[in-house]
Known about the structure:
The protein has three domains: 71 residues, no CATH class; 60 residues, Antifreeze-like/N-acetylneuraminic acid synthase C-terminal domain (Type Iii Antifreeze Protein Isoform Hplc 12), CATH 3.90.1210; 62 residues, Antifreeze-like/N-acetylneuraminic acid synthase C-terminal domain (Type Iii Antifreeze Protein Isoform Hplc 12, Alpha-Beta Complex), CATH 3.90.1210.10. It has 240 residues and is of the alpha+beta class. A hairpin with a 6-residue loop joins strand 2 and strand 3. The chain has three helices and nine strands; from the N terminus they run ααβββββαββββ. It is elongated. The longest helix is centred in the first third of the chain and has 34 residues.
Amino acid sequence: MKMKELLRMPRIRSWSLSLLTLASLGVSLNLSYAQSIDPERNPKARLVETIKNWVAQQEGVDQTYVEVQANDRRFIVPDCNIDFKVTFAFNSKTNVQVNCESENWQAVLRIQIQEDREVLVYIRSLSEGDIISADDLETASDESLTRNTGLIERSEVEGQILQIDVEKGQKASVNHFAETLTIFMTNQELKKGQRLEASMLTPLITPTSETLFEQRFDLSETLNTTVMRDLADGRVLTKN
């Protein structure tokens, strides 16, 4: 064997050793990464799973409908050696408080609960001041998050007065309607001493802000009483 070949041999061994070292390091890194994404070993993943299970049980929904906002890398979860405790926070179902008593640690996280349900939508565009009837609404399937829905039942909508313009297909919401009262207007001339009957009056649904205090009364307590003075046709009935 030539001298030059002998001099090269240690370098070959050195390269081989380096390659083996890098390969071992790569395996070590891969194992470390695998552990970090294992839900049973990753504290954050275990926390998220715990929250989903707890909320699903509380709300009677599948845990796949529960979203936990915990993706911020700055949010560090300790490796709790006992079960995390979960409760709703701030009297709201959009936040949960989680505790790890063994680590004296707690945090508040936002959550979202998604569910399939039927909602009311407008069949056509309507204007402010319009009174809603059953023919103005239809039901539609909706997959939305429970936060800020403001959705209402059909019985709560019919007869209400819109306080904003709405568009066809828009979901009905409680904040679309003005608070209202029913006042009563005469539909014929009434004479003093005449007995008041329901057929003599026309009910008017009116925004509360546009009514007077004396126009607000229970009609059942007024029917069959005596008219105290002459009333013209189209006069709004008052208590006095």
